[in-house]
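Hi W.,

Here's what went into the run:
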Amino acid sequence: MAVLLLGEVTDGQLSVDATAKALTAAKMLGEVTVLCAGAKAAEAAAEAAKLDGVKKVLVAEDASLGHRLAEPTAALIVSLAGDYSHIVAPATTDAKNVLPRVAALLDVMVISDVSGVVDADTFERPIYAGNAIQTVKSGDTVKVVSIRTSTFEPAGAGGSAPVETVSAAANPGLSEWVEDKVAASDRPELTSAKIVVSGGRGVGSEENFALIEKLADKLGAAVGASRAAVDSGFAPNDWQVGQTGKVVAPDLYVAVGISGAIQHLAGMKDSKVIVAINKDEEAPIFQVADYGLVGDLFTVVPELTDKL
Amino acid sequence: MPPMKVLVPVKRVIDYNVKVRVKADGSGVDLANVKMSMNPFDEIAVEEAIRLKEKGAVEEIVVVSIGVKQAQETLRTALAMGADRAILIEAASDVHTDIEPLAVAKLLKAVVDAEQPGLVLCGKQAIDNDMNATGQMLAALLGWSQATFISELSIDGDSATVTREVDGGLQTIKVKMPAIVTVDLRLNEPRYASLPNIMKAKKKPLEEKTAADYGVDVTPRLTVVKTAEPEGRKAGIKVGSVDELIAKLKDEAGVI
Ligand SMILES: Cc1cc2nc3c(=O)[nH]c(=O)nc-3n(C[C@H](O)[C@H](O)[C@H](O)COP(=O)(O)OP(=O)(O)OC[C@H]3O[C@@H](n4cnc5c(N)ncnc54)[C@H](O)[C@@H]3O)c2cc1C
Ligand SMILES: Nc1ncnc2c1ncn2[C@@H]1O[C@H](COP(=O)(O)O)[C@@H](O)[C@H]1O
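Here's what came out:
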């Protein structure tokens, strides 16, 4: 079987981590061709070609593909779909935007956020904020699947796949890009970091979030947040961890001033080690924490940062 | 541009506060006698439609729900918030039957063809199946533009400018109208329906249809093989001090 994997390309750069994790799942389904699309994508394609187990890389460069707009990207994938039994992508916001559109154009269902591959037709995925894991078998001719990256190890390097150029499909011209607001940061990326330190409503303000950031920097960690912290303006939206934010599974997750609502747990409960710092000893977060410290974060966090 | 009609699909789902239980036989999640509510994202979509109407950009708000007969209650809630008219498409008789996004999108396309709205406001995802697909699928079937996961919306004649919540931060795009918009949590805070409005909503029109009326086959493409509890996680220990925590993380867990 032949699998088309949509590489995660942002402004010409391949997100190697997300793509390599989805590749691990894609390889269980058949021979993998990676598609790199963008206004510029040649460099991303060269990176993708180095991933272990990639058979071929397709590169599509066109101005219309520059900002991951759904309509031209979906049109491109549909134009290539005939050759593949599976169309796969890491379950990023870009893929969640594009893949259902692709699936509907092919008159098949999309299978979102797959956390396990049983066989070429059968997949596991979390439902109800991860309160249940459903196994579904697809009867469709083409399987369109997004992969939850937090559950797959990244494929290694060492490949040298051939790169072929394909042309973009006609741009439906339905939308245009205006602006990206991306905060530049030297910290590791949330979904690939080995350690994540997250703050919740208990942190109290945007200024106080510096406490969380200092602890994170001491640990070389990424910074996360609960929805309440983001809604309150303490932290930017792309830090949100949970059912409707990012899903992370680092070696160490430190939850500070977070109560542990099920929607938050949905995004972090597969972390290897969980630490909770909360002044309420009844907080539900302690039910999933390996190490709980009951205390006031305003004394505990600075002390921890100092002593590390 | 004259004020337009807005269509808002609303799904009846298990209330987000309910602790979900997987049925012992692995056949699904227990939905008998649990509190059901409108999908939280759809409340935000209804609220946004009402705000657009209050600003004069929208003339009529039509809400649609697809599923079991009981989805009427969800529609009445939307009417009580301020929607004008409701359509129930009965497509299942058992509360445990979930209609897949592809079938929902096909039914919604039929409704769009009949109602000719200028805008469809969907939720970004249903909190039961967590699919995040219906809006995008509907946009594909109609050949319309799509603006997903939005936290800001402004409509300006024949285009709309939206801010989208994406992995890297925020993205602003401009889409041609008519458009499919899927809303994220930070777009607005939905209002509660007042008692008088709840009473009034009982008299608002609610049309009952079936999937067959639209000639749409809702047979699922995905067969559910089984539904299981996720791997549990046991509570660990409480440490008494920062020093003890550091020692545990270094020596026992080996993660720092
Ligand atoms: C549809 C839907 C989707 C959602 N998606 C998400 C999601 O993706 N991610 C997410 O996080 N949430 C999500 N939520 C929200 C979720 O239900 C909770 O409301 C949210 O996670 C609560 O955030 P919190 O724990 O920071 O705040 P709270 O629940 O208010 O908890 C604050 C905690 O801080 C502690 N605290 C306060 N002061 C101190 C102090 N000085 N020292 C130590 N501890 C202190 C308190 O004891 C408390 O436990 C969603 C909700 C809905 C309805
Ligand atoms: N059965 C349904 N009835 C009405 N609207 C629905 C239904 N299923 C999905 N939707 C709409 O599509 C959005 C996304 O759902 P989903 O693709 O299932 O995650 C929801 O927030 C609703 O706006």
